[in-house]
Amino acid sequence: xxxxxxxxxxxxxxxxxxxxxxxxxxxxxxxxxxxxxxxxxxxxxxxxxxxxxxxxxxxxxxxxxxxxxxxxxxxxxxxxxxxxxxxxxxxxxxxxxxxxxxxxxxxxxxxxxxxxxxx
Amino acid sequence: xxxxxxxxxxxxxxxxxxxxxxxxxxxxxxxxxxxxxxxxxxxxxxxxxxxxxxxxxxxxxxxxxxxxxxxxxxxxxxxxxxxxxxxx
Lengths: 119, 88
What we know:
The complex is a heterodimer of chains A (about 120) and B (about 90).
Chain A: H1 2-26, H2 30-55, H3 58-88
Helix pairs in contact in A: 1-2, 2-3
Chain B: H1 3-25, H2 30-55, H3 59-84
Helix pairs in contact in B: 1-2, 2-3
């Protein structure tokens, strides 16, 4: 029964990761590509490791939990750093209907000033 | 874990890995490349977890842990270097 549960969960989490990678491939700019990487692939890995604790031996359960905790802590930080670096590099928003309240990153806005803040 | 599902999962993850390698090679900007490298490392971590849980060898999990850590540091360093042109 546990093995069947693990089989189903592996297939589900691999589907979620595939959706995330399709999102990275299809989204038009870096700000929307971050959605696929920081939500779908990340949550697929967390689901995979959570379901792996059902069938794993005791020596492996703690390591799997440690991996899951590490990924949960580090993925939001790295996504934030990539997003902030893209904003600082003045990467344009290619998405239709994108809203930028500073009016500097949209494709039809004028040439932006040099950023004053540092990452 | 049943053998059929194990081989399907391994094949699936290898396909995802190859797609990530192509994304890294063909990325248009540097930050998309950094993002794709992060995704590639997560796919590799998933591959190691599936393989080690099925074959019941716990050594691969240590490799997955170290890989996740190094990926985090690498992404932060690369994104910072890309935007600041220096590390510190």
